[in-house]
Amino acid sequence: MGSGLVAVALEYAREAVLKIADAISEGEVVPVETAHVSGVSYITIGEHGIEFLEFLASSGAKVAVFTTSNPAAVDLGGVLEVDEKTLEGQRRIYKALLTMGVSTISSCTPYEFIMTRPRTFHAWAESNAITYINTFRDAWSDKNPGPLALLGAIAGYVPKTPLYTIEGRRPTAHVKIEVGPLDSLEAGVVGALIGERLGSGVPYLSGAVFRDEESRREFAAALSTYSSMVFAVVEGTTPHWREYLHMGDFRDRITISREDVAKYLGDVETPDAVYIGCPFADPDTVLWVLGEVKKRGPAKRPIYVSTSPHVYRQLGKLVEAASRLNVVIFAGTCLVVSPFTKRFKSIATDSLKAAFYIPRLHGVRVTPCRRERCIELAYA
């Protein structure tokens, strides 16, 4: 492909980002180290989205920074059946992204292997991942829409919105957490409650203790799902938390109690399937599920576990062994963005993010439950 065409594509991306910057950040931009692109599932972007990606790819566009992609509509090993139209659409999306130099990791947890350093700039578009690196690493990214993250990856910069400034990260609400240590479900509920009660701003959490990596992931996912917030300061955990505490302007003060968490959860119905892994499950969670199922024998109802291709490959023969226990481990997609989900009437999950999106995207009832209770329901 000629250098002239590449230059035209680069100029197109730069001009687009600068025009957006004129509208939202007084024309200021910040250079980014990495980018992560969302909106790459065929069922979410459809033909018009593919045409946009193919236009960029055919124009010679190339990413200027290390860029990864979100989950697709098709899983890595073809475990979840999808129609031919979806397969072909996803193939075209992959081809366009690869042509532009995007690393198609098909994961919503790129922070597993991208070690974002504190106070470095990034153009990420997946809300749970943005919230995770902002909150637990103090790496800086705003909630960039998928197309903007891609254009920013090509241009090398994005608009300098408030979250790319120290002033814009000033805590605006003090949140006292009176429940914990938080398991994955409780962490999600706390994130959802903070999101619903505050809606926007930067919460500062005192008293919050996360039980494990999965609980941190679920908190980040729920906070950004139930509000516009993608950054929280967790006392004793977030890098530079003392600096943030000192500069805090606490216009709001709320408390999340054990009773608040209990009220948020209702009765759990017997589901068609159990789903764990939204955001993608880490190795410890996958192994925990397999350990619980091995104690009981093959599950009566299928247990679906989504994880990243990176973790999936590490599991090796455990994936096949799990299938004999009616545990379906798959990678590269999730039940939120896969059309496979429509075959169910009800799903039980420990993910507040899945509980929010699956009914809206697929019309399937979802009941939140603790991981232990979810496993029990697979045998009910």
From TrEMBL:
Its EC number is 4.2.1.182. Keywords: Iron, Lyase. Signal peptide: none annotated. Coiled coil: none annotated. Residues 9-376 form the Phosphomevalonate dehydratase large subunit-like domain. One of its GO terms (molecular function) is lyase activity. Pfam families: AcnX. It catalyses: (R)-5-phosphomevalonate = (2E)-3-methyl-5-phosphooxypent-2-enoate + H2O. Component of a hydro-lyase that catalyzes the dehydration of mevalonate 5-phosphate (MVA5P) to form trans-anhydromevalonate 5-phosphate (tAHMP). Involved in the archaeal mevalonate (MVA) pathway, which provides fundamental precursors for isoprenoid biosynthesis, such as isopentenyl diphosphate (IPP) and dimethylallyl diphosphate (DMAPP). Belongs to the AcnX type II large subunit family. Heterodimer composed of a large subunit (PMDh-L) and a small subunit (PMDh-S). This is Phosphomevalonate dehydratase large subunit. It comes from Pyrobaculum neutrophilum (strain DSM 2338 / JCM 9278 / NBRC 100436 / V24Sta) (Thermoproteus neutrophilus). The lineage of its organism: Archaea, Thermoproteota, Thermoprotei, Thermoproteales, Thermoproteaceae.
